[in-house]
Design goal:
Number of domains: 1
Strand order of the largest sheet: 1-2
Helix content: 40-55%
Number of helices: 4
Shape: globular
Strand content: 5-15%
Largest sheet: 2 strands, antiparallel
Distance between the termini: 17 Å
Order of helices and strands: HHEHEH
Structural class: mainly alpha
Bound molecules: iron/sulfur cluster
């Protein structure tokens, strides 16, 4: 998958309810991000409500700049620091 496809996959999974297994993986990733010093709170990410993965709501990755609500939901996206 290309970088653009990974981004689109994350947005699709953000907008459409995910299967339980995929949501559990997104939550596992979100827990790691929520404890990462590179997770930043930002106004552009803050407009994205996240009712199922609340720990990273309103945050983006300070390394890749992606909103975490979409990054953790992208199947093939990889953390730029290899934490997940
Ligand atoms: S994607 Fe990786 S580097 Fe970015 S906030 Fe999450 S754990 Fe940290």
């Amino acid at each position: 998958m290309s970088k653009v496809e990974n981004i689109l996959d994350g947005w699709k999974n953000y907008l459409v309810p995910m299967q339980r297994a995929k949501l559990n993986e997104a939550k596992r990733r979100a827990k790691i991000c929520s404890e990462c010093p590179d997770a930043k709170h930002g106004s552009h990410a803050a407009v994205l409500p996240d009712y199922s993965v609340k720990e990273i709501q309103g945050h983006y990755c300070g390394v890749c700049k992606c909103p975490l609500s979409t990054a953790v939901r992208s199947k093939n996206y990889e953390c730029p620091k290899k934490k997940w």
